[in-house]
């Protein structure tokens, strides 16, 4: 009897334990778990969505989906989903199962070179549980998949391989939640996380943030700034990663809401400041955000801008090294004169091999004090180095050179590194610093010509959608930054960048901003496509035309000029009777000048006289003319140079940018003559004899405090001359082949660092410096001896160019990196006139004119024929770009007709 009681008692205990254990297992499976607690701390980004069909539908409406869906990883995802849906029970049950369900997607760095995704899917009902069970059974039975299981730390992991696609994923279930990833490493990391005691949510700081409850919000986006550099490091070169890491240390994490509109992706929310010592936040300790005042001075060719808005802007310098370096007291005083704003702009480049130019802008509390400190620092540096101070008057501005290595770092911290020396100038209430003199001159020209953000219609529209006050802002124009992105992206990732060029350039305006609000940063990310509302599809892009008829045949191209009064864009053209006609911007005739002889070279313009009005300068066979806006010769003109001369080109130089002009002409014998505006000959140039005819108009280069006149001869010799006509040491350079085009210079801080590129007739690309040292020789592909080359600089005389190869009616174009752009075959074998128009960013055009059939072919940078038709034209064309209306104006001549055509490029 006692034994039987003991037996029943033990049986009851076992049954009770089984019931208790089963109940708890059932209870645990019924208890919902916060999906965020499953996400590992290593996640870089986490996307939370709850209405996937609505999100995709809106992406389709905004034209984002058609760009996103062609990306390789998106296509693989779609193919896998289609395979799973094919074995799912019912019709399209998988998409219905996933829709209107809160799903997390986390993004991680796996290993040292891969990006991994993890999907967290809850199962919330008995019907969904039945669906998942049937789906897994069907996968096991299907020939499309292979399935295997393994135990990992008491968790059953299932691996499914798609035999047709070769892809696989691993998943497990936990408390009625499915965790799935193509990376088994990430799945194992989550299992280990679950086996710890009470894993915490990575969004603990945003527990009460529920953006998905708000209208028009399609997702929550969690950002882990501490892991962000690791993700960016997969794509960016090591060279830029220290700066990326430091900028990422402003915050530790963020929760942002995702909104979509027709041409914009918008994320905004709040970020938690980084509390770690040495972080950007600890250095800044910002209080009140500041406006973007520097927009009045930023050139439209800016590719990327870092902007800091702080009441105590000098905090960016912290921490300073304990050891006091030279000029420390003056530099400290200089930094104390700064206030509110500091910015670092990276300017557009035209080649992957070109280092981007940097410009630092600093707002000043007392410009007069800063000017005095700059003068004092310049003298201290000169005394220490036993050199004379260097300053240059450029128009109304005084430029100083401060030969202090990494001066911007000492003034503003490590973000502003990369200045071996600094050229500085005061522009209103801003101090501007560049590493090269040519960069600073170009910037001052942009400001003078109002090619700045505040005057740009597209940029103003973009800035209106960004925060008006912020502590830190990053602005990126992907079109202007295209070559910079190519330069600093890892080699293995460059192919993907090129494959996605259309998407990247289409949504070209990007801003990321942080504005301090109490103990957090209000954060805004805008990715915007510029307005293209004036583009109409299905119509001839050359529809708007204006035609002017003349009594005589037109013999010259339409020379580009500006109106003498309002600076609007006009042209002048000459007919066979020798009459020079002005055509206004609205396509009407202006002044006329009966010359009776042909214009040689181009028509130049200078600002001259007490009212600083534009005047027109040009050469004929033996004269130099200068006329006003009524077509009348101005005082002292024309210059009669002798009946025996046969002039080829006229070049106009302003050495000091002070309107003390020099006029340089060359004749068909290679003789050079130089005059001032009073007609007085300049010593050393009467004439300066060359050995051969010039291949192109002479160029003036300002290198530091030196003036260089570059002369390229058709026999392949290149001279560098000073103001007196003397040859610089190391010159002439012999390219050992004939040349039919000029050269393009990249101006450095001195003669050694200034690089000049020329192309021989046989396709040899030669780069040399102004010390006469050849730096590089490269041969372009030359299929046969009939293939001939010439360098085609951009029409505005900038530093970008293309190279044209012509062979038996075929024209092949190469960019500055010697990569082929496109190749076209034409009707005749006669030489073609190739023109290159580069208006910055994606606004570049190439015109090829056949002189025999008198046809002009107009292409975009990818070689697409604009308008799908040719234009009747007997001369090179002139093209203007109107940034405000985003359209182009083309002037062309054909027989006795001048035509102005306005057009817009299709997107």
TrEMBL record:
Keywords: Membrane, Transmembrane, Transmembrane helix. The chain crosses the membrane at residues 6-23. The keyword Membrane applies. SUPFAM superfamilies: NHL repeat. It comes from the Bacteria. This is Outer membrane protein assembly factor BamB. It comes from Pontibacter toksunensis.
